[in-house]
Design goal:
There is one protein chain. This protein has 11 helices and 4 strands; from the N terminus they run ααααααβααββαααβ. It is mainly alpha-helical. It has a two-stranded parallel sheet. A two-stranded parallel ribbon has the order 3-4. The longest helix is centred in the first third of the chain and has 38 residues. The radius of gyration is 43 Å and the shape is flat.
């Protein structure tokens, strides 16, 4: 009985090894078929890819790269990432003004561009506005020279355009002795002051809003880098200051003023809580944050 069991196990193991060898041989044969048969077909030995995937066939039709959508661009044979680059270029304000601009598309080959170039149509809407007048010429009538057939005047005879100043970009500056109201002038008026351009005009308006109005032209020097030579061109109108009620505003509201720090705003609210409403800033003179100079500078901007 034991002998029969041993023989059965031997036969089982032998069959298992034979089946495994057969599978290995089959795998090797398939690999060889992929290597050899994939490169050379069984018929005639001609080169033939083992896996053949048909690519998208490009279509050629007139298109404007400034307005073509993604479907049209893909139909032209462009890759999806190239289409995304076109969309990014247009979203950033880029404009294709002539066909050669399209050649700058990243990844576009010379062959692709030469194929697409005859079909590129740039709309005149995307041309520079100056091109509308690039070819205009002065034509003369018969009375200009008293001769018929004269279509253009000589260079010396053509009317010369008058030189006009762009008062928006280059405003006429004030002359010495002239002044503008510091607390009511807008940026356009402020730029008329010699030495004041767009930057300082905006800085003046911004600082004026934070202060609640200027009480002296010397306060302009608190703006970093402000040209001192511009001070004589300003004057301050009385009664144009917006005042802070120190007995009603919170610490957060008080500290928005350029002259009031966090510790000063907290000292004011603490004083109100412990001793009642303030009647004068001099009541705070014993506090370390309220020096005589700070009290004097802050005095025009507070009320009680």
């Amino acid at each position: 009985m034991l002998l029969v069991i041993v023989v059965a196990i031997s036969l089982f193991l032998t069959a298992t090894y034979l089946m495994r060898d057969k599978d290995v041989a089959s795998d090797e044969q398939m690999a060889a078929d992929r290597t050899d048969g994939g490169r050379y077909g069984a018929k005639g030995g001609k080169a033939q890819a083992y896996y053949r995937v048909e690519g998208r066939k490009a279509e050629l039709f007139p298109f404007d790269p400034n307005t073509a959508d993604s479907t049209q661009l893909l139909r032209l044979g462009l890759q999806p990432w190239q289409v995304r680059n076109i969309y990014r270029y247009r979203a950033a304000g880029g404009v294709y003004r002539e066909p050669k601009d399209f050649a700058q598309l990243y990844g576009l080959t010379v062959k692709q561009y030469r194929t697409l170039e005859p079909y590129i149509r740039i709309s005149s809407d995307y041309m520079p506005a100056s091109s509308l007048f690039a070819h205009s010429s002065h034509r003369l009538s018969k009375n200009d020279y008293g001769q018929e057939g004269t279509t253009a005047a000589p260079y010396e005879a053509r009317p010369k355009p008058s030189a006009t100043r762009d008062t928006l970009r280059y405003p006429v500056k004030l002359k010495p002795g002239q002044q503008i109201a510091l607390n009511s002038s807008d940026t356009a008026q402020l730029k008329k002051v010699p030495g004041i351009g767009s930057y300082y005009a905006r800085q003046i308006v911004r600082y004026r809003e934070k202060l609640g109005g200027f009480c002296s032209t010397d306060q302009l020097l608190e703006i970093e880098g402000f040209p001192e030579d511009a001070l004589p061109y300003f004057h301050v109108s009385p009664g144009a200051i917006q005042k802070l009620n120190v007995n009603k505003l919170s610490a957060a509201q008080l500290r928005k003023h350029p002259y009031i720090s966090y510790f000063m705003a907290k000292a004011i609210t603490d004083y109100r809580r412990m001793k009642g409403p303030l009647h004068s800033l001099q009541e705070l003179r014993l506090l370390p944050d309220f020096t005589p100079e700070l009290i004097q500078r802050l005095q025009p901007y507070v009320e009680f």
